[in-house]
Amino acid sequence: MLNKLLLLLIASFLLAKNSWFITNLEYGKMLYNNPRGISCAKCHGIKGKGKTVTHYIKNGKKIYIKAPNIQDIDLNRLKKALFHKYKPKNPIMPVYNYLTDEEIEAILLYLRSKK
Ligand code: HEC
Fold first, then answer.
1. CA distance 52 to 64
2. How many domains does the chain have?
3. 4 band by pLDDT with thresholds 50, 70 and 90
4. Where is the Cytochrome c domain (predicted)?
5. Which H or E run contains 83?
6. What pTM does this model have?
7. Which residue, by CA, sits nearest to atom 19 of ligand 1?
8. Per-residue pLDDT tens for 51-106?
9. How far does the centroid of ligand 1 lie from the alpha carbon of residue 21, in Å?
10. In angstroms, what CA-CA distances link 48 with 21, 24, 29?
11. Regarding predicted confidence, which is higher, 47 or 23?
12. Owning domain of residue 86
């Protein structure tokens, strides 16, 4: 009886943990694609692998502006990029300083899942 109860307890704990994970993953995916601003996917690609955003011609040479691969980013760097707390070489990425910690962590979770 006690064993069964314990098993039930463990099972429901695992289930709850699992659904936490799935919910936050979905949340992160949603935010990555629609962060109440321009979609991250537009520049960094749907999986965060990065891509060429645009190019321009300078002295007859094509200069490419690329959004980097961000699948391996850590929380600190992600926050810095979103809040523009560093000097970007190509400052075309919008500021997303209205995202909450929870939202940023969900985005990170999504990016990690795409590796
Ligand atoms: C208009 C295009 C564009 C959009 C939209 C955009 N980014 Fe970026 N992002 C860039 C570019 C370009 C860089 C590189 C900046 C530089 O030159 O340093 C960058 C840099 C970053 C970096 C820093 C990478 C590093 O190595 O430090 C992170 C993290 C990042 N972006 C995440 C995001 C997330 C998350 C979103 C959505 C909320 C987003 N970006 C939306 C273009 C974009």
1. 7
2. 1
3. confident
4. 23-115
5. none
6. 0.87
7. 67
8. 999 999 999 999 999 999 999 999 999 999 999 998 777 788 999 999 999 999 99
9. 25
10. 19, 17, 11
11. 47
12. 2-113
Q: Which of 43, 98, 99, 109 to mutate to test the pocket of ligand 1 (most atoms within 8 A of CB)?
A: 43
What is the amino acid identity at position 47?
A: K
HSE-CB for 69 with a 13 A CA cutoff: 6
Q: Calculate the alpha carbon distances from 1 to 10, 13, 35, 69 in Å.
A: 14, 18, 49, 52
**Residue 11 to residue 75: CA distance in whole angstroms:** 31
Asked if residue 17 has its Cβ within 6 Å of ligand 1, the reply is no
Quick: pLDDT tens for 7-33: 888 888 888 877 888 889 999 999 999
- Output the domain CATH number for residue 105: 1.10.760
Q: Is the CB of 43 under 6 A from ligand 1?
A: yes
Q: Is the CB of 79 under 6 A from ligand 1?
A: no
